[in-house]
Amino acid sequence: MKVKAQIDRFIGKDNRVKAYASVILGGEYVIRDIAVMDSKNGLFARMPYRSYKDRNGNMQYSDVAFALNETSRNAVSDAVLEVYEQRLHMEEDESQDFADQEEDETLVFEQRM
After folding, report:
1. pLDDT in tens, 73-92
2. Distance (Å, rounded) from C-alpha 57 to C-alpha 46?
C-alpha cells in the first residue's frame, strides 16, 4: 500500500509535540492529526486518539486509527518522520535565507549612511 504523508503544521521547538501530520493510505483513506512527538528515545509518530473517563473516573486513551501489523505501522511512521525531517530542513533553509537577506539589507543600509 502506498503511504503519502504531509506535515499540516509545526508546533514549536520547545514542545513535546513538534508537528501534526496527515497520511493518505493507498490513495483512498486519510488519517489526520498524527502527532510528531519527541521523547527521550527520539522522534516518533503518535496516532490520533480520544480520551475519556472510565467508570472509576480514571482517564483512558483510545486510538482513533491504528495499524493492524508492524509493517503497516512502520510504513506510516517512517513516512511521517521522513517528511517531517524534510520540511524541518526546508524551514531552516528558508530561515537562513531570510537572515542572510536581512544581513545584506543591513549592509546596504550601513553603506548608505
Report:
1. 999 999 999 999 999 888 77
2. 24
Q: Tell me the pTM.
A: 0.78
Q: Taking the mean position of all CA atoms in its chain, how far away is CA 23?
A: 11
Residue 70 identity: E
Domain layout of the chain by residue ranges: 3-112
Give SS3 for 26.
coil
The position carrying cell 527520539 is 42
**46-52, long-range: CB within 8 Å, 24+ apart, which pairs?**
47/76
3-state helix, strand, coil in the chain (%, to 5): 40, 40, 25
Class for domain 3-112, per CATH? alpha beta
Do residues 22 and 6 make contact, with C-beta atoms less than 8 angstroms apart?
yes
